[in-house]
What we know:
Strands 4-2-5-6 form a four-stranded mixed sheet, with helices on one face. About 30% of the residues lie in helices and about 10% in strands. The chain is built from nine helices and eight strands. The chain is an alpha/beta fold. The ligand O=C(O)c1cc2cc(O)c(O)cc2[nH]1 binds next to strand 7, strand 8, helix 7 and helix 8. The site of the ligand O=C(O)c1cc2cc(O)c(O)cc2[nH]1 has 14 residues, from strand 7, strand 8, helix 7 and helix 8.
Amino acid sequence: MLENSLRKSAKSSAPTAAGIRHPDSPVSKPPRIGPSFAQRKALQPRPPDAVLVEGNNVMRSIDRPLPGDVVGRRKPQLHPDVSRKKSAYFESEFAGPNRGDNPAKTRLINEAIVTAELKTNVIISDEFAFITDLAYHLSNRYQRPMSSIIITLHHGICMLFGGTFEPACTLTINALPSLLQPVTNRRNAALTQRHLQETLGVVSTRSYVRFEVTPEENVAIGGKTLATEIEGISRDTADQKPGTFGRPSRPSRGIMKSVKSLSSFKSNSMIGLSENVPTPPPSNSGETTRIATILEVPPTPPDDERTSQVEEPKALKSAPRRKSLRFALFGNKISPDK
Length: 338
Ligand SMILES: O=C(O)c1cc2cc(O)c(O)cc2[nH]1
């Protein structure tokens, strides 16, 4: 597709274990190949494992800074329970699940789509693994099902970032205003840039994340905006209140229609994980694999999603690699070297 010299030179460079190749920069010299990602990860200084809640296997760190914390500033130590509740409060306030009193509306909002567009000059040979990992990361960050995540990936493109062609990327995230609050953005920027550093090998200083608020009026599916859909639900709910006089509810445009329209959209045109619809095969293989059961609401972010101490690796041509979500989903069905 792209036949420019950047891509050609990148193509000629040896692929790494992760199947990711960084373009040889015509401007600055490409970095020397260093130790593998696993070796670098093992060498990285990591804070000692957090004290676990006594007597069980809860793996969540209690020393993780809360959203809005200035890392490094001394703060009074909170009791672990208080700390966890406070963290959970922020997580649920700024990212779903929203718990309104209208279930149909709540569901629409909790399943509102988050789109992400990633552009990078790095060449990713296993697009499926990369995009699946990113989708899982965003599904976790924004607390919505995988079927509510849309990602477009443009890789191996010609990108001049801050005057050099070193590995870099831009990521634009579109979501409803409630999901893109300043505190949430601060946290998600750090966590997502760290994710990109680990999966793409792009240091956070060369990864530009842009959060774009997209109001309900500005998104549509099936010819109807989300705002219209929500208004319809509210109107129908008001109509159905006992003792109120409103227009009779029309079954074809009622609550169930609204919910059904979204779910049928999800199962028909999206991955439809809960429906056991086959997922796209890895781009480099012809096989079709069924995804195992996946939780509708993703689990609490794993312990490794700490915002602090995001290490900047030396610029390396070797590909970073971390265990793909696919292995959690598919077990041994896919060979790890794909
Ligand atoms: O952006 C969304 O998540 C979104 C838009 C939209 C429009 C619509 O008519 C629906 O029924 C659902 C929906 N979700």
